[in-house]
Design brief:
There is one protein chain. By secondary structure, this protein is an alpha/beta fold. It has 2 domains: 8-245 and 450-526, Alkaline Phosphatase, subunit A; 260-443, no CATH class. Helix 17 links the parallel strand 23 and strand 24. The longest helix has 22 residues, at 170-191. The protein is globular and about 70 Å long.
Length: 538
């Protein structure tokens, strides 16, 4: 059986707050075994700790100012419209691109923001930004048909695991994980990758839907059961590991309780920075009603329409441009759900009224000071910091980052930017549009996980100060490759056996190739609908 040199297992949103109690109780024998014989540490995520930004930073080793992926959506050329982002928007080469150039074989499965699937020396199955349609789902391109013939319809974990009545469905989590492991096993046997990189999304989804269940019932909760399912999948993947295989388990961010939602545009309107249209209504209602009607169709019919008539959805979406904002009287607005504030700058936004230069800087300073004073309805201060974008990021893609990044305390609040309807300033939670009985009950945290076991690992090592950009240089070193000088993270040497570092000192590559500029793919609208159902878009 072909044996990879390195297996990377991504458990989206996994946190030691859940892992450690379950390991201690004996519920996660496979992850517990890696922890017992390997190195561990908290892996600090990005600001914001959000899937697109965090995973892309992890696999490129550079910040959003260089790779250009900030959120699930980005503003269009007008400055006001939002378009869904996918892997083609990245402007920095990922690990597998570099390894393919070096002649190394790789296999990647379900890594977020890898649609369309990249051409690699090996195989790729796209992640959460993938459409339900087959085009771009795999590399090699026709591999998707072989997978469907062998495994049936792909049970990709790109949506919340709920049944048709809106109830949490852990059996769907189990079936999706089992199918993914079977696909990985078959592909790894066929392509013999030296790097095998597989991501599971279930922990993130269960945190969002059921975090209070974890807090109330612990080991008996649905969250704990999802972690046990993931641990079983990890155990199956470990069967591919040999004595010379290193295994790295990482998460892009952690998870925790969600205290509430701040509608930042409502707050900006209260403070006099944003103006609503006179009647407070938006356009685009016809297309919205069309999509609501579509949701009532049986799932099989919806899937068939996606495959046969993809142009229909694209045309319908082009009919709508909903907004309740009067741009000519607005100085600042928000978008997304994590605290993104943009100034309406003259010459940059289509109807901008804030002059660049001194006025822009004065307004940013004023907004920052007021946001830092923002309190919950109970009078609790809820903002930890308000960052100017250039204080967090640098690079040619910096303009894609909002002017101000609002960091809420412990990320226990969401900073939603609703441009389509007027709302109250505070909400208890976000309702899941596709399943209104479900509520967004848990959020993200900056503390992810890092676990390394195998011949290169230093048993018992505890990492301090590890950041998500440190994963890329560590992976390159573990595979015997030079670390590109452009990487902004560091090699996590404290997780490695000192004798290995003495025997094979790290090498650094100063001959940096420019990242290829990939033509952006038009974002399939079923992805937009799915991200709305997950609560990531308004």
């Amino acid at each position: 059986m072909p044996i990879p040199k390195l297996i990377v297992v991504g458990l989206d949103a996994a946190t030691f707050d859940v892992v450690d109690p379950l390991v201690e109780a004996g519920d996660l024998p496979n992850l517990g075994g890696l922890l017992q014989r390997g190195a561990r540490g908290t892996l600090r995520s990005t600001t914001h700790p959000l899937t697109p930004l965090a995973w892309t930073t992890m696999v490129t080793g550079v910040n959003a100012g260089k790779h250009g992926i900030w959120d699930f959506s980005e503003r269009d050329s007008s400055g006001y419209g939002l378009q869904v982002v996918n892997g083609s928007h990245s402007r920095a080469p990922a690990l597998w691109t570099r390894l393919t150039r070096a002649g190394r074989s790789v296999g990647i499965v379900n890594v977020p923001f890898t649609w369309p699937a990249p051409e690699v020396n090996g195989f790729a199955l796209a992640g959460i930004d993938a459409a339900a349609r087959e085009d771009g789902m795999t590399s090699p391109r026709d591999l998707v048909h072989e997978l469907q013939d062998r495994f049936g319809r792909l049970l990709l974990d790109h949506s919340f695991p709920v049944d048709s009545s809106g109830r949490l469905d852990l059996e769907l989590v189990r079936r999706a994980c089992e199918q993914k492991v079977a696909i990985v096993d078959w592909l790894a046997e066929r392509y013999e990758p030296e790097l095998l990189f597989v991501v599971f999304m279930a922990a993130d989804h269960l945190h969002h839907l059921a975090w209070p269940d974890w807090e109330e019932r612990g080991r008996e909760s649905s969250v704990a059961e999802a972690y046990r399912i993931l641990d079983a999948s990890l155990g199956e993947l470990l069967k591919r590991a040999g004595d010379d295989t290193n295994v790295l388990v990482v998460s892009d961010h952690g998870g925790g309780s969600l205290h509430g939602v701040v509608n930042l545009n409502a707050w900006l309107a209260e403070q006099g920075y944003l103006a609503y249209t006179e009647n407070g209504s938006s356009n685009g209602g016809g297309a919205h009603r069309l999509f609501e009607l579509r949701r009532k169709l049986p799932k099989e019919w919806r899937y068939s329409l996606k495959q046969r008539l993809p142009w229909l959805r694209e045309r319908a979406y082009r009919l709508q441009a909903p907004t309740v904002v009067d741009w000519g009287r607005t100085r600042a607005f928000a978008y997304g759900i994590f605290g993104n504030v943009v100034l309406n700058v003259a010459g940059r936004e289509r109807a901008g009224i804030v002059e660049p230069g001194d006025e822009y800087e004065r307004l940013r300073t004023e907004l920052r000071e007021r946001l830092l004073d923002l309190s919950s309805p109970d009078g609790e201060p809820i903002v930890a910091a308000v960052h100017r974008r250039e204080d967090l990021f640098a690079g040619p893609e910096l303009d894609k980052v909002p002017d101000l990044v609002v960091e809420f305390r412990d990320y226990a609040w969401l900073g939603k930017g609703n441009l389509t309807e007027r709302t109250a300033t505070f909400e208890d939670a976000i309702s899941i549009r596709a399943h209104p009985e479900q509520r967004y009950a848990g959020g993200h945290r900056q503390e992810g996980i890092f676990v390394l076991a195998g011949p290169a690992a230093r048993p018992g090592a505890e990492l301090a100060g590890a950041g998500i950009a440190d994963v890329a240089p560590t992976v390159m070193y573990l595979l015997g490759e030079a670390v590109p000088a452009s990487f902004e993270g560091r090699l996590l040497a404290e997780a490695l056996e000192p004798s290995l570092l003495d025997e094979r000192p790290p090498e650094f590559d100063d001959d940096e190739e420019a990242a290829p500029i990939v033509a952006e793919q038009e974002s399939p609208r079923e992805v937009e609908e799915r991200l709305r159902s997950l609560g990531y878009l308004e």
